[in-house]
Amino acid sequence: MLRKTGYEGRSQISMVSLDELVPIDHLVRKIEYAIDFSFIYDMVRDVYCEDNGRPSIDPVVLIKIALIQCLFGIRSMRQTIKEIETNVAYRWFIGYDFSQPIPHFSTLGKNYVRRFRDTGLFEGIFHRILEEAARHGFIEPDVLFIDATHVKASANKNKYVKQIVQEQSRKYQDQLDEEINQDRALHEKETVRKKAQCHAEGEHD
Question: Quick one: where's region Disordered (predicted)?
Answer without folding.
Answer: 183-205
